[in-house]
Amino acid sequence: QLRLVESGGGLVQPGESLRLSCAASGGTLDHHHIGWFRQAPGKEREAVSAIEYGTRTYYIDSVKDRFSISRDNVRNTVYLQMNSLKPEDGGVYYCTDVILREVAPEGTITGFYAASDYWGEGTLVTVSS
Q1: Which phi and psi (to 5°) does residue 110 adopt?
Q2: Count of beta carbons in the 10 Å neighbourhood of residue 72
Q3: Could you give the percent of the chain with pLDDT greater than 70?
């Protein structure tokens, strides 16, 4: 069974960067769509970014042009590069298998949601001066 472990979180100041990693074990990532979610204290978990098993990606509007998702199938890892971080980016970040919402097969991705109820422990991102 595919198991995903998040890492790379930390405490940074506004404007700084972090790179989160989502490392897989028990299987390979290369046939999975993977998404990042975050949950701030007192708020519901929200979808942030996803990458299909190919190269198509998706970002919510609030992180476009600041976050970049990528995958390294050799290292069996998905990354989330987060630049120009804002306090509202803070929260626990989770990665998981996702199902994509698409305009058409292989077309524009319009959103995504978790494929299962499996969630790892996440990694905490705190953005504060």
Answers
A1: -110, -5
A2: 12
A3: 100
